[in-house]
Structures are given as structure tokens and as C-alpha cells.
Design goal:
heterodimer; A: 7-stranded mixed β-sheet; B: 108 residues; mainly beta; 7-stranded mixed β-sheet; 4-stranded antiparallel β-sheet; 0% helix
Chain lengths: 116, 108
Amino acid sequence: EVQLVESGGGLVQPGGSLRLSCAASGFTFRSYEMNWVRQAPGKGLEWVSYISTRGSTIYYADSVKGRFTISRDNAKNSLYLQMNNLGAEDTALYYCARSEGTFDYWGQGTLVTVSS
Amino acid sequence: EIVLTQSPATLSLSPGERATLSCRASQSVGSYLAWYQQKPGQAPRLLIYDASKRATGIPARFSGSGSGTDFTLTISSLEPEDFAVYYCQQRDNWPPITFGQGTRLEIK
């Protein structure tokens, strides 16, 4: 069974940093592209970042470019999102999602709240 | 950036009725369009990919159609568990990957 389990969310002050993790199991992690998608409270879905199977290709949404860094460790079956200089607009539930073009499996999300 | 516009914003129907949800793209996305269902407190679930292909385990009452800029998700006969929010998503011209704003399907 495919499982994606996010962790690392929490309350952080504006300008602060957080590192999110996503632990994958039930599939060959190194063979799949991965993404982060977020959802602000009561709002729709927003794609945040993409990483290819070996990490050689990375993309970001303009809203996070220069502040967020996606990475993966295929030996540990893990996906990461380093988030710096956080603002109130980054408050959201962050999902990791496996993709083969579309997002076929999602984790349950980890909540990031940016507030003083 | 390709903008996806979903209509209606809210659809009120009764169990057993047919639901028709629309997604329009600001430019052609070919057939690279997906539909997701999201229930309160849950992660989105992939329903349809490549415009018309049902994902694994998705009931046959869900169907997708369209190409280019106009797409439709049809639920042939609504079950109580189908009342949720539905999102479309394109992967033709990315980054960025974009989603529609969602259609809320509520019980009438």
C-alpha cells in the first residue's frame, strides 16, 4: 500500500524557517517524481514545487521561488521542503504528492501556521 | 500560466441525479487534464486523468470528457458519498502546474 506521511509543520513567526519531511513507503520511491502542494485554510489547491526522480530537475511556483528548496533522499525514501523567510501567505496545509504527470497519491498533509 | 476556470462554483443536487461539472482552460491543454475529489478533512483523491481515464478504483459513474480548452466531469447518478469539492488540474504546459478554483457539490 502506497503511503506518504508528512511531518515538520507547526507554528512559526514571520520571517522564520521550517523544514517539512515526507516519508514514503509501499512503492519504489526513487522511480517517481514528487511534488509539494499546499492548501490555505478554506481555499483551493496550489502547486508549490516539483522534483524529478534523481533530483536533477526542480521547479517552483513563483510565489515560493527563492525562499523554498525541495530535495529528496532516495536512500531514505524521503522528500523534503526547506521553507525560509515565511510569511502569513504561506499558512497552509502542505501535502506531498506522488506524480506521474498527475498526482496519483497524496499524504494527509502537515499544517504550517505563520503568525506572531 | 494556464488558468483553469471551473463552473459552477456550487452545484446543488439530490442523490440519484446526474452532475455535470465544467473546467475551461485559458489555452489548450490537449488532453492533459485531471479531476480530483476532496472531502472535508481529507487529502484530494485522483478521479480522472488524461481527460477521460478513470484512476484505479474509481467507480464507473465518474466519467471525464473534453479536449483542448473545455472539459467536463460527469457523475451519472449521485451517491451520498459523492458530495464534495472537485478540482481540475492541467499538466500540459508547466511549470506551473495549475488547478481550477473548485466546484462544491452539495446536497439539495
